């Protein structure tokens, strides 16, 4: 019953830009299964109500279907596609941005033993589980508030906190709990992830980023790989190539300059790695991007 009403609410309130009147709540409605597209996950809960979604992160592949949810605890570069969508049965998804400060507040308010303690080692940055009925019920009640503007301002924050609590105490609670702990392994990795994203065009030594994260090199490498499914250098390359593709969409005739801008000194290396990532050399892919409309199919939810 929850899933049926969830589909109805998502279909009614879907917008082209995926935003809603409730801050942090996203609704996706996709009517075709486009080729895989790169995007960043954000820190998010995503619930599928209809259709299916597949994400690739490094060498890991995640797929979630109706009644399942995905949590991403770090903003990670993924390649994603809806694998079961058509105009008569569009893929429908719910997304909620996960705020570390709210997670931390809930953990502080919890009674002794109410929320299991997070372990010391970093967990994967993405996980998929079946959505229990109490979680789906809370998501449905949050979406109902889109039809109740008088109640929305007061009740929406309360229901969002309930959803977070269901996640914290649920099967993937370890991942979500680490999001709210300032000294967790995940928070240290997230700090290094942000630094690499902000400085992706410049070379770095892993030792320096490990020091920034407050870890030994061996612990940093192990935890970074656990969260992102990539080494720090591989992660940097993913960010560089995604940024290059965005730049080529608006500067299709400036391939060499784009390569330099994202950090490649060698045009041949840029072309080779770009082709390996996106299936076509930069100039050819840029021409293709010019003749296709922008799609958000790779993004969550």
Automatic annotation (TrEMBL):
- Origin species, per record, is Streptomyces mirabilis
Which keywords are on file for this protein?
DNA-binding, Transcription, Transcription regulation
Q: Where is this region: Disordered?
A: 277-301
Every copy of the HTH araC/xylS-type domain together lies at 190-288
Give the protein's recorded name: AraC family transcriptional regulator
The lineage's top-level taxon is Bacteria
- Cite the InterPro entries for this sequence: Homeodomain-like_sf, HTH_AraC, HTH_AraC-typ_CS, Tscrpt_reg_HTH_AraC_N
PANTHER family linked: ARAC-FAMILY TRANSCRIPTIONAL REGULATOR, TRANSCRIPTIONAL REGULATORY PROTEIN
